[in-house]
């Protein structure tokens, strides 16, 4: 009996958002422990091989790239073929990448298509599964621009899907700011095609900035949140911090991965490191393996 049937049979669907994850993890799925490489971006740009080797020794198996140079077609200053060779030699993968779409928000459809084609080529070269739009700049965060962006997301999603890859949008906190009772995230959900535009759910930003919860988001759009970002929130400053060092109780807020449609998750810390980025990813990995990996 799967989880959905179980819940409906027991008549507890309305209360499911209050249960710890173990109460409804009926289907066990093994996901690779992932890391968003923005966390160690400086290290990657200085010595990608040493950084990835160290991350692998901590237990990370899958990675999400950041900083694709479309003009040179490189990742961290490396040609895709060289970067792919590193991944293969270390027996690790890069299943998703964050690409710089925000600068194309108001450019022509032809310019956007050309840039997307470059991203597709880069993703192909690394055998990625997803291309991800990670954010828009502060000056772009208006309700009208969320509508324009939603149109762009559909166009990119159509192009990326036709190429045999997945496409997703990654939330921060600004999407949950209300304007006359509506948020940018509402617009994205309403005006993008769920078959073309999947979602990368950043748990930290949902907890930090919205009135909803990760479980409620998944309940309202099951199957669409194909990727997760996991990072903790400092108890005082509410800034980023290492997993286990903050205030987010992931054992209670994680949605059911099967209901979410989860394919990949990535631990991330965008800054505010207690010591160094490398020490932070080690501390987060240790905490995750001890307290949270059993759920995934």
TrEMBL record:
> Residue ranges of the Xylose isomerase-like TIM barrel domain?
52-254
Concerning InterPro entries, the annotation shows:
IolE/XylAMocC-like (IPR050312), Xyl_isomerase-like_sf (IPR036237), Xyl_isomerase-like_TIM-brl (IPR013022)
Q: What is this protein called?
A: TIM barrel protein
Q: Which residues form a coiled coil?
A: none
Q: Name one Pfam family in it.
A: AP_endonuc_2
Q: Which domain of life is it from?
A: Bacteria
